[in-house]
Design brief:
two-stranded antiparallel ribbon; alpha+beta
Length: 143
Amino acid sequence: MGILDILKVSASGLSAQRKRMEVIATNLANIQTTRTEEGGPFRKKEVVFTATEISEGKTFDNMLAERLEGVIVEEIVESGKPFEKIYDPGHPDADREGYVTYPNVNLMEEMADMVSATRAYEANINVVNTTKEMFMKTLDIAK
């Protein structure tokens, strides 16, 4: 595994976690959205990651010896969690019984996901920085 391979794997992780943070931000921004263009309340979005091949341009012998995988966002799906109904007869979106259907977004879950995505992003940044430091020390040794 070369230095560029390490950076490619970390870069894929950085990109995936950035997209995850964007989806979390969208969920948080719509936590009280009871009416969308599609009709009904906002549905929570979730990111689905999948492994992807990183080792491109390698010889056949090298590919047999090692397999490098990064991560990509395969898709963004809507959550299947049920909506929350709250009694609020004065709300403009209340049904006949006075209940308002709110999005299936939970603030605590989103904050925990945000912390997790932030930590994963930081871990990938640390890998990039450590790899850079090791490369620079290697160059110093060669002087």
